[in-house]
Request: fold
Amino acid sequence: MRATVLVRPKQGILDPQGDAVRHSLHKLGFEVSTVRVGRVIDLELEAADGNEALATIERMCADLLANPLIESCEIQIKSV
Amino acid sequence: MSDRPLVAIVVFPGSNDDRDAAWAVGAMGGEPALVWHEEPELPAGTGAVVLPGGFSYGDYLRTGAIASLAPVMDAVRRFANGGGPVLGICNGFQILCESRLLPGVLRPNRQLEFVCRDVRVRVENEDTLFTRRCTAGQELVIPVKHGEGAWYADEGAFVQLAARGQIVLRYDEDVNGALGNVAGVVNEAGNVMGLMPHPEHAVDPLLGSADGGLLLAALVDAAAAHALVEA
Reply:
């Protein structure tokens, strides 16, 4: 099974990297009011079905892939 | 066998202040022992543990996240849960937070610049294993050198930590965007501390300051006391 985990800085958490990217986009002439930079993690794993994969990946997020203090996880199951 | 208290200094791939920490612990009267991250146990007779500065595992994923799962960390966790003194310096602080042995997390500096200079930190709580040689309100000059040193916790947790005296060191200026200018915190039990400044780089006036020696000498005191209890 393939899945993608999107890790984002939580709302309200300062994201200096996103701010730096926004400044650089302004220099290029792009009008952008907000930029937030996160992380994409593509996974391939064995699971009986989508629900099992989701439960497993939720544990991965809690234990390692994201720090719940500052990051949120969005899990997308790609194929069954 | 030396009668100096044994201080285990964990070496991760990418640690780069391990030998400085060993030298400084030795200068403060401790017996340093470098311990590779794959070791399942700490050396027999370990009285204290230092997690040194550096860039363990290349800071992959998040600083300290991969190192928090190294085999030696199970031993460090057992040691800490048994009351053993553990000090995390810079990357070591990041590892302790990711291991959930300490509250909060270290985030990229707000100014996105690596900070490398002497800073002043104020001792907020003198009643910890690590600050017993200091007095509350005392200012210490200790260098920092980090790109991800902005300590963060949610507001409720922060208020609680401050009330319990777990905020041990604060910068006297905004160095990196850390919440409340926090430079060092201790766990609730009081035996695990992390700080971003590098006391091992400030143990001799020739290095610009000997103030870091106060913290490391206290760690060696704590190591001696812990080894006695365990013996």
Residues 50-65 of chain A form the longest helix (16 residues).
